[in-house]
Structures are given as structure tokens and as C-alpha cells.
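Discussion board: Methods & Data

I've been asked by a reviewer to show the raw model output for two of the constructs in my manuscript, not just the figures. I'm not sure how much to include, so I'm pasting the format here to get opinions. Each protein appears as its amino acid sequence followed by a line of C-alpha cells. Is this the kind of thing reviewers expect to see in a supplement, or should I convert it first? Here is construct A:
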Amino acid sequence: MPQTLPARSGALPLLLLATLLLTACSKPAPAPEPLRSVKVITVGEATLASGLEFAGEVRARVESRLGFRVAGKLLRRQAEPGQVVQFGQVLAELDPQDYQLAQDAAQAQVAAARTQRDLAAAEFKRYQALQQQNFISGAELERRETTLKAAQAQLDQAQAQLASQGNQSTYTRLLAPAAGIVTAVEAEPGQVVSAGTPVLRLALEGPRDAVFSVPEDRVGAIRVGSSVQVKPWGGAQAVAAQVREVGAIADPVTRTFLVKATLPAAARLPLGITLAVAPQALARGQAEPAAAIKLPTSALRQEGGVTAVWVLDTATMTVKSQPVQLAGADGNEAVVASGLQPGMQVVAAGVHVLQPGQKVTLWKAPK
């Protein structure tokens, strides 16, 4: 008995050490795959648009870049972007001190020239009386008359210079040429501007245009006077507009032609909003609208060079990859030529975080 007890005592630490080593070498159990929430849409046939659409915007028929007619330091600017202004309203002012001094100098020149003219006129009148009494010759009287005419011409010149300097002083105030909306500001107080430098952009009240660009292979079909359907971005109600101008030269960068269509006054669309423009000249001209399967582009993904979507199996609530063939685009949606059947449920968002056979749950909007 005394010999067996030490043996058992030495084996117990070895057994505990082996157990610890085996526990440290074993791999942890894999974490369960998360149950992802997905948004799905039910595949169905939808009507294709009747023609091509282009992105456009609303612009004023006349938009002027306003600047001062004289140079100077911008003293203050009373107009801000988006402000509605009326005819004759002061938009900005230059420092008028130099022009006021020039006007004062011109007034002094007028006073001096008037004095010289009055002196020459009095002398001519006196010499005229002497000539009538034959005290002087006719040639002497003519010299006095010439002096009077020269003095009158100098007065006229001084008065013209005074009027010009008065205009220069007036030009230090930038006035609105018509009622409109300030669309941009291009100079700030303290800045020294030269004559003609744009300070503000003003969209004048009046007709407004839908402006859009057409590629060079389509512009030939659009004529002045043709009709276009204009719909505000995200709006449901379309309005009819009429093409009034087609650009004669392509843009050197985009190689597109600018087209302007007159909007009806009753539309009252805000300046600068985005439009979807559908020229009637580019409509497909089919008797009945065509039906096709359309998907949002967020549902598409690339898998080994093939376009595919995730299809939901409602029985097992798992997803599987389904290759599709695309026929083109219709607005902001992709037209599917093959690979899907009406009634299928396709994942519309979060397609890049899913795996084949992965279990999912339907996404519900928060209340």
C-alpha cells in the first residue's frame, strides 16, 4: 500500500495536463450564418415606354450675366441667389468716390468755360457796336466773333464731359434690367472688378424652356415645332412642350446637340429642376404598348461574366442564383429577355452579401 500511493499521485497531474492540451488544440465551433433580411419583388410583365427619354432641366428663356459698365471696387452686393428682384432694383454698388471727384472736376471745367464764353460774348457785343460806328474794321469784328465761337465750343465740350462723368457715377450702381430671379453670384464685396466682369446671373421673368441634349444619331429626327412630353423627375403628370431650337453644332466633349422646347406657362415649373423629356419624333410608333419583364438595376449582379439575380424559394426561404439575359433598358429599369417567369420572387436589394442556399427572411418596413 505505501508503494502504490505515490504512483497514483504522480499520474493525476499528467492526466490533467493531457486534458488541457487536447482542449487547447480543438477547433472552436463555427458561428451560425446570420439570417439576412432581404427585400423582394414579384416578377410580372410591365409596359415598355413608348420611346426614348432624355434627362433635361428647366431654364429661363433669357438669362443675363450682369456686370458694371465701369471698373472699380465692389462696395456692397444687395442681391442673393434665389432672390426675386424687380425692374430698376439696385443689385450691387461700386465705390463711387473716384467717379464723384471726376464729376466735380468736370463741373469746374464747365464753370470756367461758361465764364470764358460770357466774356467773349460781351466783348463781341462791344466790338459790334464800334463797327457800326465805323471805329473798327469788319476784319476785327470777325476775329471777335471767332473767339466767341471757340469759347462756346469749349463750353459745349465741358458740358458733354460733365454729362459723361455723370453717367460714369450712375454706372457704379448695378440695376436690374427687368424682373427676374438671381440664379448665381460671381463676385463678392471687396473684389476689384473691371468693366463688363460678370457679377450676377439673372433669369428674367417670361417663357421657360426644357433644355436637353440629344446624341448625334438621333438629332436628325427632331424638328423645330415638333412636340415633346416633359415630366418632372419623380412626377406623374407630364406636360406637352414644343421644340423651338435645335443646336447646329455638337458639344465638343459630349458630342450631343442641345435642344430647347418651350414649356407652357400654366406648367409653372421651378427653374433648374430635372426633367424626363420624351420627344414624340423618337417614339417607337407601335400600335399597342409592348409588355416585358423589368427589374430595378439593384437586383442585378455579375457572376463569372454572366448577369444573374437571386430567386427566393418561399418553401425553404432560401435563395438561389438565376442567370438572366437582358434586352436593354427602359428608363431606370433593366428589360429581361429570358431567365425569369412571371410570379417569381427576386431579391431587389443587398444582392452582393448573399450566398447560394442561404436562408433569409423578408424585410419589413419599420412602423
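Construct B, same format:
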Amino acid sequence: MHSAMHIVSVVGARPQFVKLAPISRAFKKHNFVRHTIVHTGQHYDDNMSSVFFEELEIPRPDVNLEIGSTSHAVQTGRMLEQLESWFLLNTPDAVVVYGDTNSTLAACLAAAKIHIPVVHIEAGLRSFNRSMPEEVNRVATDHCSDRLYVPTPAGIVNLKAENLASRAVFCGDVMRDAVEHSIRLAESSLPFLSKSEDEYGLLTLHRPSNTEVDVLLPLLKNLDELAQNSMPLIFPVHPRTRKILNAEKSYLSEAIKLVEPLAYLEMLMTVKNAKVVLTDSGGLQKEAAFLGTQCITLREETEWTETIDLGINRLVGTEREKIGEAMVELACMEFSVQSGTMAEIDKIFGPGDAAVKITDDLIAFVAQRQDN
């Protein structure tokens, strides 16, 4: 019989709540585990209203530190200070961190320095581009964590190269669990989105490198012309991007339809029914793969190289010619993802049981440390 355990998850941004949801559900099956959710408040996000939690069946945070958006150093420093005092007061048996945000790094350092075991979900990812703050956060977190839960075989290879294999467990991807759960919710709660006869693509742009005026405007102009020749693009616009578009009064044709940011379930249905997704987001590349939709990634590198190897994602940067070639190539293939490819996705990312594997292993890991 297990003795009582207190496990704390620290999150700071909306995508982390999505990853947390399947973990939280899996912990509920173990009545000796008290699972506390600490939200650093790294991102103040209107999309994280009460609807977000209800809609996705995500537990609300037990604690909100309300740090807010500032420079990387100030934000990380404030989190370190507040998390350390919270950990000292509440003495968790383990701290769980997710992904690669400043909240991930701050929680990891705060816990590790006072000898609380740290486990990192979504470990082992590498873009090999150290100019991305996320890459610095990932590498540092992996090296300071005691247990690394790795979503893909490629992640294991990366950790072996950094001599971290002994801490690593391949478990599949919690985002797969989240998408499988959420798409079922979406199909029952949003039947009106289930199928539109019109073909469309979905476009998202949010990376700072793509939303600077001198990159964004030519990129959108090129996408607009491509869309006029193939299919309209639905473009949920990030507030930062909308400011630029409003200031520039850039006139796009009807082929690019600007809409407000979509709630998560709406977004999933829009991805599922799109012919193609064009994005610079990391998470969306995978969501497209899990939902059987082809993806064109408007970046120079990706952490999800497996989706490239499977032929369901094309890495094209922001050059018009490369984007156009990818659109034409997909049109010739009729945009569909083969069932054999979906079976490969199960092998690489798991069939949607990552959270159960992680929580079972984590409980055993903590129990062993309690016994020693």
C-alpha cells in the first residue's frame, strides 16, 4: 500500500494546461495522491477564462502567483523567489514541469536547489537553435531534472547524446492523450463545425521572428496570392499580430479570412476539417498530425522531425517559392493522410496512453525515494 504523496504541477501558459489535463485525470485514479496545480501567471490570457477550464475538463489551478509578463530575467527571477517559498512551505514529494517555458525552468531550479525531485514532461526535445529561449529552457531543465518523460524515440536519442539516458523514460506524448480526449468533446459539443463542404486551409502566425513588420507583411501578401490560386485561408489573429496589421492598414483579399483567436475545441475542429495547416507553432504541427491533416511549417527548424520523416509536415521557412511548391505538392496528393501513416504516428507518439504510463512510473519513482 502506498503512503500519501503530495505532487505539484507547475504551469504558466495555456498550452501547458492542455498537457496537464490528461495527467490530472490519471492522478485522480490514485486516492493517496494529492495533486496541487500551481499557475505562475506567466501569461495573462483572456482565452483562459472559466470557459477554457470547463470546456476542456481541466482542473483550475489551486494557486496563482500572478507574476505577469516582463523580461525573461525579471520574470524567471520573480518565479524562482515565489516558487521557492511556496515549495518550502508546502514540501511536495515531487514537482512536475511541462514543456519549455520560463515557468518550466524556474520551477525546476527552485525545486532542484532545495532537493525536491523534479520530473520533466516533454523532455528530450531539441531544435538545436540556441537563439530560441525555449531551447535554453529545455536543455537546462533536462539537465536539472531527476526523471525525464520523453514523448518520442528521437527525444531518447537526444538525451543519450547528452548522457541523460539513465533518467529518461519513453512514454509517448501527453498531447496525443489531450487531442484524443478533446476531439471527442469537440465532436459532441460543436456538431455544427463537424464538416463544411468548402475546402479551406488554416493559417497561424505568432513567433516574434514572423510577426515583425518587414517579415509579416510580405509573407501575408505571398500567402494571399497563393490562397487566391488554391483555397481560402482562415487566419485566427494573435492580438500582437493584429496590432501590426491595423497599424499598416494592410489590405488582403477575401482569400485570407481574419478571425478572432479560436477556443481550443473550435481550433481542433478547424484543424481536423482543414485541407492543410500553415503554421509557425510547435504544438499545432503535432495536433495536425494527430488529426490526420497535412501541415506546412513556416519555420527553418522543428522539434518534431518525426512529422517531417512521415511526410505529413513540410518545413519551408517563409520563402514564397517553397510555400507554393509545398501547396502544389499536397494538392497533387489530394492532401489526405494515409491510414498506414496514422499507424506510424501511434508507434512514435503513443496511442493516447502517455498520462497513465507517466503517472504510474512517477508514483513508483516517488515511493522508492520515500522508502530510502
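Answer (T.O., handling editor elsewhere):
This is acceptable in a supplement if you add a one-line summary per construct. For B, something like: Residues 83 and 110 are 6 Å apart (CA to CA).
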